[in-house]
Amino acid sequence: MRLPDTSLGRRADLRPVENGGYFAGYGGGVLAEFHSKLSDLFIPERQGCRVDVVDVVPATGVDADDKAQVNEYAISSMEELVSVLNQSSPSGSSRTFLVHRVNSWSRMNVTYDMFHAICASIRTAPEFVKLVMGLGRKLGSSDEDFMACYSRFSMPDTTSQTYDQACDICYNIRYYERHGRELEDPWSCRQSAIHQTYPFSSKQSSWLVIQSPTAFTLDVRDAQARTTTAAAHPMSPHIQYLAAGNAGWRGYLNYIADRLKSLDEEVAVCKRYGEFGVDFSSKQSINLLRRKLRHAAAILASTLETLGTLRSHEATMARTLDLRVSLHEGFQRELQNLSSELRNYLQTARKLLSLSDDITSIYGDILNLHSQELIQTNGMALTHLTQANSLETKAIGSLADCARQESRTMRIATLVAVYYLPANLVLSFFSTTLVWFETVGADGPGQGLSVLRVHREIWIAVVVTVVLGAFTVAISSWWERREVKGEEIASPKRTLLRAC
User: What is this structure's pTM?
Assistant: First the structure.
């Protein structure tokens, strides 16, 4: 196991380019993006820090019953990490760093300086930073489809004579596990990343695993899960890691299948379309399941590509190390078994997608029939309303004719009254006591001249008439202004009531 630099014991700067840290050799593009996400990737303080280290030293005997020695360390500070890193390990040993997270959208429970020391110790590949950047704190579903696998074989550095020939491989997987919360969907899609460095001379495997599957964590800590002799395949933990990630696929797809089955049973029995309890929310449920199935199919396809890269990496490694044929073929068979499972899960996901298409089509037909029936019902209701409106229109027309006839009659009566009003006014004036006829110069009966006489107080009648007319006009003007003012006050109130 390679020892870290002594400078790693000091708190690392959050600007690795400037202080010449291990990440400085990764290139400006990747490093700049990595630097911008440091606050979302690592916790700022040691409080809450949790890194588990598992050292596995294989048995040196030839007895098949001899078990490997497993040493575990729970690290929560930089000092403890440096102490563990400075411990020497024999050839053929394996050291695994387990970095945890609270949930799938939270930061890693490790500080940046500790992560920097771990990466410098095991010589992580620059591509591993790309995988790490998708594991930080998130406020949305970003990078949910990014999966990759990187393989590298490095040659000895003849100038410094510091590092020998080694190979490394890193990748991330997405897997499903039960979250244990009381939600409608009991499954969560989680992400994990793994990195292995294997120097050919010391044969000391170094592993860095971030948010590992639960089953893999148990396997790492179980001494019985490790091969007892030093002749074990150096890449065998990949099989355990991938198998732990694949453990939830069967249950998750069964859950999706049960949900689709319950939706299919709603329309599987032949009956009148009006008896189906189908609405738009049912179609939304199918769309949600289809989105989950498409995401699962993409993950399965990417995982199969990762297995292909692992297969090629192991073949090159077997040739370089001249591994026994039994170890090489055994590892390839295990990968083939995992690939067979994943292809079956992928086929199942595609089958469920096809089934969801059929269910969606039937639901769409039922909703269309409901829509057509609703359109027909609304059309009939509109027809009845139109007929009723027509009858009301006829009645209003009859009333309008009657009103028009009455208005004509009233107009004629008004005209007649206007024609006779002057005569009536004149005759009424002459019929009063203010005006009378007096006979003048009569010597005998039937003789003399009739003279029209006007009472001298007739001005009183004229004045009273003028005053009464003026008073009437004043009262009418006041009443009209009052009505207009009342309408102006009531209009804003009606507008306010409409707005409320």
Answer: 0.70
